[in-house]
Design brief:
about 200 residues, alpha+beta, globular
Amino acid sequence: MNANSAVGISISLQNGIPKDIGLGLTAATTVATFTAINDLFGLGMSNLEIIKACMSSDRISGLEGDHVGAAAFAFTPTTIAALGPHNGMIGCVIQGVGDMVTVTVDPSVPHGLIKISLIKGLEHHKLSFNPIFNCVAIAADSFMSMMNVNSAVGISISIQKGIPIDMGQGSTSATTVATFAALNDLFGLGMSNLDIVKAFMS
């Protein structure tokens, strides 16, 4: 943003999120900080641009130190396919509507295991907190095994649903891709978007 040498900055933090229990404290404070600085300097960044900047910040920080509390998140938009004649000629993405997945290194979770810590948003009651029956936890376990990081740490996942379930708008695909993208950032794997899509398809 090229504003780091313009002025001195002091930051005050009012923390309302418990630490180290998988509720996305790191992600929340990062987004809040980026949003405040965006407003302070009048940078005019959209919410999506702020999210992308936060994701880049998570890539840089990686899993430094003791890893505890390290977090990454990803947003994926809803999609509509099968539009137009002959049921499937056109597909589109709806901007601003989607699912957010946050993955956090959680010291209360045994290494190699996954806990669903929070599910909120649209039709959240339809999703299970049991990782055996939750598509996000299943996707996370599959991805971590694929990338050989499944025994490194215990992971908590929070899910913010913005896409209706069972309506053909790509809800399962969105949360799965968001999970892969967040884990890619959390572990600093350096996968491209295409790599993530290929991993999802496999």
